[in-house]
Design goal:
Blueprint (H helix, E strand, L loop, with lengths): L1 H20 L1 H17 L10 H8 L6 H5 L1 H22 L5 H47 L4 H11 L4 H14 L3 H11 L3 H16 L3 H25 L1 H24 L5 H5 L1 H29 L1
Helix pairs in contact: 1-5, 5-6, 6-7, 6-11, 7-8, 8-9, 9-10, 10-11, 12-14
């Protein structure tokens, strides 16, 4: 059993080394693709399939932020997986090798997906925090007499990542000559934020009906800033209940681990008896359901 676990750990390390070794060819391929795109811009978007659009529309497509942190994702997943498998081996030492390997594989997939989704959520939050400042700068640029492409170019140079990448993509598509309606629709799919989609819709309406774009952008920027201030106030007011809920949820787990470590006979009924396993499953499901209800209430209050 120890040899199998050691071999699996070495395999994961080799996988990490292989991913790191493949980064150089991937960068060379991207460089060649960018060079080709400068000569013929149509090559830049020809490999984007329907399934990528479907994932982007639902906010599940891994972004550049995720790929830039791929080593962090891999290291955190491996450490978490090792700790989880150590706990499984302590709780159920009688498990056979095949069940342990299957549980290891399932845990690895779950941890990787969870880490990717968390990274994508962090990326979306950074974009949402930077959007009011970007709209304010864009409003000033258009009020000074700059065109839309010139204003986007100026904003893309001044803004930090990751929102600057999205404005750069928008500017690049407009310079290629794609219809602005199609570009703005795809921009809303790439960055699935309600405020960003409203910004794209405001641009479309301004192009169709006319008017002062700077005033529209300034008004939207002020609304987004007011919304962010309200969300920060809500986070401050609910920080204590959220912390209390997390502590209450962790107490049973810590007590279970402590009892298993100090006196395994006290928790043997929960692990090896069918009635005890049902009780343990009910307790875990109740805690998870309570945390889910608290989170739903907080999300509803934030809207």
């Amino acid at each position: 059993m120890n040899l199998v676990l050691l071999a699996l750990g070495v395999g994961l390390l080799l996988l990490a080394a292989g991913l790191e070794w493949r980064r150089a060819p991937w960068r060379q391929r991207l460089s060649r693709l960018n060079a080709t795109a400068r000569l013929d811009p149509s090559h830049l978007f020809q490999h984007q399939g329907q399934w990528q659009h479907w994932l982007q529309a639902r906010g599940l497509w891994p972004t550049a932020f995720v790929w830039q942190h791929q080593r962090t994702v891999l290291v955190i997943s491996q450490l978490s997986l090792a700790a989880l498998m150590l706990l499984v081996n302590m709780l159920w030492p009688s498990l056979t090798t095949i069940y342990l390997l299957l549980s290891w594989l399932c845990a690895a997939v779950i941890l990787l997906v969870a880490q990717l989704l968390w990274s994508h959520r962090q990326w979306l939050q950074q974009c949402e925090q930077q959007l009011p400042q970007a709209l304010e700068q864009l409003s000033r640029a258009t009020a000074a007499g700059l065109g839309l492409q010139q204003a986007l170019s100026q904003i893309g140079e001044e803004l930090p990542a990751p929102l600057a990448d999205e404005f750069g993509w928008l500017l690049q598509r407009l310079r290629i000559g794609d219809p602005i309606e199609q570009v703005l629709e795809q921009a809303g799919e790439r960055l699935p934020l309600r405020s960003y989609r409203f910004f794209c819709l405001a641009l479309l309406l301004n192009i169709e009906t006319g008017g002062r774009l700077s005033q529209v952008l300034a008004s939207q920027s002020q609304q987004l800033k007011a919304r962010q201030r309200a969300q920060q106030k809500l986070q401050t007011l609910t920080s204590e209940p959220r912390m209390a809920a997390n502590v209450v949820a962790l107490i049973p787990l810590l007590m279970f681990v402590a009892l298993f470590w100090l006196s395994p006979s006290h928790v043997a009924f929960l692990l090896h008896d069918s009635s005890g396993q049902s009780m343990l499953g009910y307790a875990v499901a109740s805690v998870l359901l309570g945390l889910a209800v608290i989170r739903l209430l907080l999300l509803r209050a934030a809207r």
